[in-house]
Design a protein that fits this description.
Elements (H helix, E strand, L loop, with lengths): L1 H27 L1 H23 L11 H21 L2 H9 L3 H9 L6 H17 L1 E4 L2 E4 L3 H12 L2 H10 L1 H23 L7 H25 L4 H8 L2 H13 L5 H17 L2
Antiparallel strand pairs: 1-2
C-alpha cells in the first residue's frame, strides 16, 4: 500500500508541475522555464541529500543517468507539444508512456493480466483518436501530437532504469537524475541561446515547478523499492488526469467529441494497465 500511495503522490506532483510549467512556457518560452525549473529541483534534492549526509553504497544509482537522458528528452518534447497544441490532448498521449514499462516487464518475465492487455489496446486506440482533429470537414493530425508521441517514448524509457536506481537509493538516484537533467538543459540553452532571465513572481513559479517535479521523482524512486515496476510506473503515469483537469478548469480547453473519446480511452487504458 505504501508503494501505491508514493506512486500516486508522484502522479499528483507531476500532474501539477506538468500543467503549470508548460502554461508558463507559453509566454516565457520552453527553455527559460526548464532552466530555472531544473535549477530549483536540483537545489531542493541536493539540500535533502546533504541533510541526510549518507553516501551512496550501490552503483546502481548511476542508472539514473540514462533515465535522466530519456526523461529530459521526453520533457523537452512534452513542453513543446503542450505549448503548440492542446494540453488536454498532448498530456494523455504522453501519459501513454505507461505502455513502455509494461512491455519491458513482459520482456523480463512479467505476465500481464487480461485487463492489462485490454488497457494497452484501449490506450493505443485512444491515442489514435485523440491525435486527430476535424476542421472544415477535414481530418488531420492535431497540433503538438508528434511531440507528444516523442514525449511518450522519452517518459516510457525513463521508468525501467529509474526503477532500478530508486530501488538502490531513492535519494541519491534522484540527485543523480536531477544533476544529469540540469546539465542537459544547460547544454541545450548554451546551444540555442534563448533569453533566460526571469524575475519576481514568475521566477518563484517556475522554480516551484522544478521543486514539484523533483518531489515527483523522489516519490517514484521511493516507491520503486517497495513495489513492482509494472505497477508503480503505471500508477505514476496517471499524472495526465491532473493535467487535463487543470487545463479544463484554468484554461477552459475544449476538444472535439472524437478527441474526447480518445482522451477517455487513453486514461482508462492506463488505469486498466495498473490493475
Amino acid at each position: 500500500m505504501t508503494a501505491l500511495l508514493l506512486a500516486l503522490g508522484a502522479s499528483l506532483a507531476w500532474g501539477v508541475a506538468d500543467f503549470v510549467g508548460p502554461f508558463q512556457a507559453r509566454t516565457l518560452g520552453t527553455f527559460r522555464v526548464l532552466l530555472w525549473a531544473q535549477l530549483g529541483g536540483l537545489t531542493a534534492i541536493a539540500l535533502a541529500v546533504a541533510v541526510r549526509a549518507s553516501p551512496p553504497d550501490d552503483p546502481a544509482v548511476l542508472l539514473a543517468v540514462p533515465a535522466a537522458i530519456s526523461g529530459s528528452l521526453g520533457l523537452i518534447a512534452f513542453y513543446g507539444g503542450m505549448v503548440t497544441g492542446t494540453m488536454s490532448v498532448v498530456a494523455p498521449i504522453a501519459g501513454a508512456s505507461a505502455v513502455v514499462p509494461v512491455v519491458f516487464g513482459i520482456a523480463t518475465g512479467d505476465r500481464p493480466s487480461p485487463a492489462q492487455i485490454a488497457g494497452i489496446g484501449a490506450a493505443l486506440v485512444g491515442v489514435v483518436l485523440a491525435a486527430q482533429e476535424h476542421r472544415r470537414g477535414e481530418r488531420r493530425l492535431a497540433a503538438g501530437v508528434g511531440l507528444a508521441l516523442l514525449a511518450m517514448l522519452g517518459f516510457g524509457f525513463y521508468f525501467p532504469p529509474m526503477h532500478v536506481a530508486g530501488s538502490a537509493d531513492p535519494w541519491w538516484a534522484s540527485l543523480v537524475f536531477r544533476t544529469t537533467a540540469f546539465l542537459l538543459v544547460v547544454t541545450a540553452v548554451l546551444v540555442r541561446r534563448p533569453p533566460v532571465r526571469v524575475r519576481g513572481r514568475k521566477l518563484a513559479i517556475v522554480v516551484g515547478v522544478g521543486v514539484g517535479d523533483a518531489v515527483g521523482n523522489l516519490l517514484f524512486a521511493a516507491s520503486s523499492g517497495l513495489g513492482l515496476v509494472s505497477l508503480t510506473s503505471v500508477l505514476a503515469s496517471l499524472y495526465p488526469v491532473v493535467t487535463v483537469a487543470l487545463a479544463a478548469v484554468v484554461v477552459g480547453e475544449r476538444i472535439s467529441g472524437g478527441q474526447r473519446i480518445g482522451v477517455v480511452l487513453t486514461l482508462a487504458g492506463v488505469a486498466l494497465i495498473a490493475t
